[in-house]
Amino acid sequence: MWLWYLLIFIFGTIIGSFLNVLIIRYNTGKSLAGRSGCLACGRQLTALDLVPILSYLSLKGRCRECQSHISLQYPIVEVLTGLLFVLTVWRFFPNFNLIAFYWLIMALVVIIGAYDWRHQIIPTGPMYILIALSLIWAVANGGAYLLAGLGSFAFFAFLWAVSGGRWMGFGDAKLGLALGWLLGPVATLSALALAFWSGALVGIGLMVASRLKRLWWGSKLITIKSELPFAPFMILGLLMVLFFSWHVIPF
């Protein structure tokens, strides 16, 4: 079985490499069919430069031509996608229909989370595809799932409206809709609790780190008013509940 998990992980990293292309080129007007190149010097990448994870390690995170730094996003997305594909098989085997369904879900949440972290905005296209797939799941599972999605959407939409978009973006409300439709009422509450807790911990950690960094190197200070994308933490809550049943709400 471990050999199968290894093969699935490798397959996931290949998908993750393609997801990186989507994340980088989305809303730039560039075709997905074009050859990949260095973002700094424009050099076209060879097959040896495109091996997931291994190329980044062999190049030590730098372009072969101009030696500019390659974003850590590339290996992180590849490793994360590989791990999520393995976890999906581990969680849903031998239901191959569910595995295929959740592989699509995992690819979409990786795109959404990475893009939001990079640009602090949720990409519309992948988000609507996720909502459509989540609605199919909610309809198949009954009214409670439908209500969970609508309730989660209403909660985030309320925060967005009363804060004028300062606390939450409307994209977070859309993601809340999909999350509720995927998880149902009780699991959604746990996922959102985990999202807020993890977001608070990371935010505090970044503020402390930025103060130390500013003290030593004079870098920009991160404060409680600094913007921190929330979609990655909502996705983390979803994954913790979906794969490991972290039901932190006691009912």
Question: What does the model show?
Answer:
It is globular and about 55 Å long. The chain has 9 helices and no strands. It has 251 residues and is mostly helical. It folds into 2 domains: 93 residues, no CATH class; 140 residues, no CATH class. The two termini are 35 Å apart. The chain is 69% helix and 0% strand.
Compute the number of structural domains. Answer: 2
Which structural class do the helices and strands define?
A: mainly alpha
Could you tell me the mean pLDDT?
87
Order of helices and strands: HHHHHHHHH
Low-confidence stretches: 215-219
Tally the beta strands. Answer: 0
Instruction: Give the radius of gyration.
Output: 19 Å
Helix content bin: 55-70%
Figure out the total of helices.
9
The biggest beta sheet is recorded as: none
Beta-strand percent range: under 5%
In short:
This protein has helices spanning 2-25, 54-58, 73-92, 96-119, 124-141, 143-163, 170-183, 185-217, 231-244.
Summarize the topology.
Blueprint: H1 2-25, H2 54-58, H3 73-92, H4 96-119, H5 124-141, H6 143-163, H7 170-183, H8 185-217, H9 231-244
Keywords:
single chain, 251 residues, mainly alpha, 2 domains
